[in-house]
Amino acid sequence: MSFVKGEGDFEGYLAFDVFEEHKEDETKLMAVYSTKYNAFKFGDTSMIIPPEGGQKLIDEFLNE
């Protein structure tokens, strides 16, 4: 929806929190998001995926 309703600098960005039972699992999952979708860490558990990574997610999971 951020591609549809987002405007200006906010278009296409995705923000989310990563919570896992074990901290090491959070770290591993964050590394996957960083590598695969160019996500960057924001705070302790929050991550942000920029528009390029968001488009990759759409293509991978919604445009099958």
Which labels suit this protein?
globular; 3 helices; single chain; 17% strand; 64 residues; 3-stranded antiparallel sheet; alpha+beta
Structure description:
- This protein is an alpha+beta fold.
- Helices cover 47% and strands 17% of the residues.
- It is globular.
- The two termini are 18 Å apart.
- It contains 3 helices and 3 strands.
Give a short summary of the structure.
The protein is α+β, with helices and mostly antiparallel strands and 64 residues long. Helix content is 47%, strand content 17%. A 3-stranded antiparallel β-sheet has the order 1-3-2.
List the topology elements.
Elements: H1 2-5, E1 14-17, H2 23-37, E2 40-42, E3 46-49, H3 51-61
Antiparallel strand pairs: 1-3, 2-3
H-E string? HEHEEH
Count of DSSP strands: 3
Number of domains: 1
Question: How are the strands of the biggest sheet laid out side by side?
Answer: 1-3-2
Q: How much is the average pLDDT?
A: 93
Residues in β-strands, percent: 15-25%
Envelope shape: globular
Q: What structural class should be given to the helix and strand makeup?
A: alpha+beta
Taking pLDDT < 50 over at least 5 consecutive residues as the criterion, the unreliable ranges are none
Span of the ends, CA to CA: 18 Å
The biggest sheet, with number of strands, parallel, antiparallel or mixed sense and barrel status, is: 3 strands, antiparallel
The share of residues in helices is: 40-55%
> Which value, in Å, is the CA radius of gyration?
12 Å
Please work out how many helical segments DSSP would assign. Answer: 3
